[in-house]
Amino acid sequence: ALLESGDTDAALKKLADALAQDPANDDARYDYVRLLIATGAYEEAAATLEEPLAREPRPLRFDALRRWLDAMEFVEKDERGNWPVEQFDAKIAENKRDFDTRFAKAQALMAEGQWAASMDELLEIVMRDKAWNDQAARKTYVAILELLTPPPQRAGAATPGK
User: Fold this and answer.
1) pLDDT value at position 62?
2) For position 7, what pLDDT does the model report?
3) CA–CA separation, 96 vs 156, rounded Å?
4) Model pTM score
5) Are 136 and 118 in contact (CB under 8 A)?
6) Alpha carbon 67 to its chain's center
7) How is the chain split into domains, by residue range?
């Protein structure tokens, strides 16, 4: 409710408090990290992701957040993060199998919230070489699907329209 009202700081504080009270609360951790990434608090998001990403098996939803965080950090730190789409397209037109450039484009699009366009680029890589870069394109594609999946209804939550 705090987030819907636009009070991001209060939402962050409430989620941080919930996580401090119950460090095993993965729902609060997920919502907290997602909001940290959305507000540009990348270092804190990375630190909060360390524990769940150390688990085996690695929880998919936290891996998805890490991949989104990677895309956001890519845009900040890599010069290609500021390329216009046309520059990516020109470089890819020279070599359709330039997966590094295609993946960079996908990350830049992902960071901008252009999920479908990012997925198109990732799918191009997967179709040409599924195993490229330890399956980074496939794993990032799955991560986007995970990020776009609505959260499950919490127990006791009222069903809208009923």
Assistant:
1) 98
2) 82
3) 50
4) 0.89
5) no
6) 5
7) 1-54, 58-151
Report H helices in the chain. 8-21, 26-38, 42-53, 60-77, 85-94, 99-111, 115-128, 132-148
Q: Judge whether residue 149 has pLDDT over 90.
A: yes
| Number of neighbours of residue 119 by Cβ within 10 angstroms | 20
What are 46-64's pLDDT values in tens digits? Answer: 999 999 999 999 999 999 9
Query: Is 140 exposed, middle or buried (CB count within 10 Å of its CB: 0-12, 13-18, 19+)?
Result: buried
Name the amino acid, one letter, at 79.
Answer: E
Query: Chain-wide mean pLDDT for the chain?
Result: 92
Let me know if domain 1-54 sits in CATH 1.10.760. no
The pair of structure tokens assigned to 106 is 């996908």
Question: How crowded is residue 2: how many other Cβ atoms within 10 Å of its Cβ?
Answer: 14
- Is the omega angle on the peptide bond into residue 57 within 30 degrees of 0, that is, cis? yes
- C-alpha closest to that of 146 among 54, 23, 62, 28: 62
Fold of 58-151: 1.25.40
Whether omega before 59 lies within 30 degrees of 0, making that bond cis, reads no
- 151's CB contacts (< 8 A; 6+ apart) are 27
The pair of structure tokens assigned to 52 is 């769940």
